[in-house]
Amino acid sequence: MNLRMFDEIDRRILSLLQRDGRITNADIARAVEMAPSAVLERVRKLEERRVIEGYHAKLSPRAVAKGLLAFVLVRTDSGWQADAAQRLCSLADVQEVHHIAGEDCFLIKVRTTDTSTLGAMIRDQVSALPNVRSTRTTIVLDTAKETLAVDLSDLAIKE
Question: What's the pTM value of the predicted model, to 2 decimals?
Answer without folding.
Answer: 0.86
